[in-house]
UniProtKB/TrEMBL annotation:
This is Phosphoribosylglycinamide formyltransferase. One of its GO terms (biological process) is 'de novo' IMP biosynthetic process. InterPro entries: Formyl_transf_N, Formyl_transf_N_sf, GART, GART_AS. It catalyses: N(1)-(5-phospho-beta-D-ribosyl)glycinamide + (6R)-10-formyltetrahydrofolate = N(2)-formyl-N(1)-(5-phospho-beta-D-ribosyl)glycinamide + (6S)-5,6,7,8-tetrahydrofolate + H(+). GO terms for molecular function: phosphoribosylglycinamide formyltransferase activity. It comes from Algicella marina. It is an enzyme of class 2 (transferase).
Length: 196
């Protein structure tokens, strides 16, 4: 089984769904580590409760190079094969991405290539989108621009706000990411498409 690490910065709800999906021994992946860049990340206690080893590599007070070297060392020590970014809010350098080339996935709360970066829900509203969604993609040196592995789509309602969009999208993310990871870990190609 592929050894999977999940990197988080916050509440870690996607991380929980990924870990739960890998609890099945027939799954091609195994959750071996949850790593956060801040000790306060709410997802850490959830990971501990699920029995997954956790690590904190704080980014504060370090250069990007120092931070990433520490993250890499922790991932290497855990013999990680696949890195899933799940609400991990640090941009990774080209050097880090090269080191983990082809082995990093990310979930982004928009229908890429639209709305790379932050504030995706408000930007989808401002653009007058009739649909919104989430994308799981491979991470490359260009932010939110690597090959798309799967997308989930839902309608935008007249009275939606950034908050209601985010809340309605999250359960779709929770279906999308485990499905994409299972296919990726098994080495299958092709993209996942989910509809609300
Ligand atoms: C998710 O909506 C994810 O798509 C988004 O952060 C949230 C994390 O929630 N990711 C990004 O914005 C990446 N730039 P979670 O911690 O509950 O999984």
């Amino acid at each position: 089984r592929k050894r999977v690490a999940i990197l988080i910065s916050g509440s870690g709800s996607n991380m929980v769904k990924l870990v739960e999906s890998m609890a099945d021994s027939g799954h091609p992946g195994e959750a071996v580590l949850v790593l956060a860049n801040k000790a306060e990340a709410g997802g850490l206690t959830k990971a501990e409760a699920l029995g997954v080893p956790v690590a904190v590599v704080a980014h504060k007070g370090k250069t990007r190079e120092e931070f990433e070297a520490e993250v890499s060392a922790v991932l290497e020590a855990a013999e990680v094969d696949i890195v899933c970014l799940a609400g991990f809010m640090r941009v990774l350098s080209a050097a880090f991405v090269r080191e983990w080339q082809g082995r990093i996935l990310n979930i982004h709360p928009s229908l890429l290539p639209l709305f790379k970066g932050l504030d995706t829900h408000q930007r989808a509203l401002d653009a007058g989108m009739a649909v919104h969604g989430a994308t799981v993609h491979q991470v490359t040196a260009d932010l939110d621009a690597g090959p798309i592995l799967g997308q989930a789509v839902m309608p935008v309602h007249e009275d939606d706000t950034a908050e209601t969009l985010a809340a309605r999208l999250l359960p779709l993310e929770h279906r999308l990411y485990p499905e994409v990871l299972a296919r990726f870990a098994a080495g299958s190609r092709g993209r996942v498409a989910l509809f609300a």
